[in-house]
Amino acid sequence: MDIIFIPSKTICGTPVHSRLRSFKEYFYNMVYKDEVEKKKYVFLSMPPFHNFKFFLNPRRSVILDIRDGWSIAQATGYGGNVKCKPLKSIFTRQVERFLIRRAFLTITCTNGLHKYLEEISSRNVILIPNGISGEDYKRAQSLKAEKKINEGDELVFCCAGKFSEYGPDKVEKLCLTIMKRYSSKKIKIQLIGSNEEKNIWLDRFLREKSGGQAYLDIVPRKSRESLYEVMARADYGMTILRDPSYEFGTKIYDYIALGLPVVNYFDKPNNFTDYFDACLDIGFGRNNIVPEIRRDLLIEQGLKDIDF
């Protein structure tokens, strides 16, 4: 197998970077298999949605990884996070359809996107969710085993990554849910690596709405090792979703590996809660199976029957 990975400008340690690194390791391990005729491939991960020229090259087969909904975001505003562009979404939906039908193989990362992309393209799409590496899994298990039960009067709710950046209205709903659900305890909302300027408003909101029982703590970005150590000391994980129909949220698999229940702030079931129901602090009782969280295993399960 001869495969070219098109570089992507991703920050080391982010879920996108980890996902692409995992795919690269998987496919490079296949390169050294004995083959009479080596097939030629290009691996593209989108967004950003460009590099369309590779779909027009008959000498290369494209392995396409779609991590986000392009036409969905334009049509729906992705939960109010971006401006709706219904006319543009018609065009981009046709582009997505062409890309999938032209690709040798298409992969996506959530059940909502999986269903949507298969519907618009009439092609089979492989679902390989995000996860964590075997190395991070071992680190998480070690930290989880060492963790002591919090017997104090304060609960820590952590979020690693963007928070208010995905919508202040969603943040307010999440925090109000936490303050109501856990009103007997002092509450620390801990943000790790979030933009301080865009989130500092939350401290006043928390203190006012809780009568001083809840407050904000913003921690600078951490290395992967230090991040896990900080998250392991929390009691619950938090993730803000722009649109639960099509995405799974940041660091959800890291929380699960560390044994942190994820706060459910939704009023009714959706694709996200159905998939992660067994991992929520209060679920809807629709799924008692904890998802597999190691990406290397997921890739093997998703691609093992593909004839490359």
Spans of at least 5 consecutive residues whose pLDDT stays below 50 are none
Q: Main beta sheet, described?
A: 5 strands, parallel
The shape, in one word, is globular
Mean pLDDT: 90
What structural class results from the helix and strand content?
alpha/beta
Residue share in β-strands: 5-15%
- Fraction of residues in helices? 25-40%
List SSEs in N-to-C order. Answer: EHEEHHEHEHEHEHHEHEHHH
Alpha-carbon distance between the termini?
A: 8 Å
Computed over alpha carbons, the radius of gyration is 21 Å
- Strands of the biggest beta sheet: in what spatial order? 1-2-3-4-5
Number of strands: 9
| SS field, number of helical segments | 12
Overview of this structure, please?
By secondary structure, this protein is α/β, with parallel strands linked by helices. The protein has helices at residues 15-31, 70-76, 86-102, 111-121, 134-146, 168-181, 196-199, 201-210, 224-232, 252-257, 271-276, 295-303, and strands spanning 2-5, 40-46, 61-66, 105-108, 126-127, 154-160, 186-192, 214-219, 236-237. A 5-stranded parallel beta sheet has the order 1-2-3-4-5, with helices on both faces. The protein has a 4-stranded parallel beta sheet with strand order 8-7-6-9. Helix 1 links the parallel strand 1 (2-5) and strand 2 (40-46). Helix 1 (15-31) crosses helix 12 (295-303), helix 2 (70-76) runs antiparallel to helix 3 and helix 5 packs parallel to helix 9 (224-232). The longest helix has 17 residues, at 15-31. It is globular.
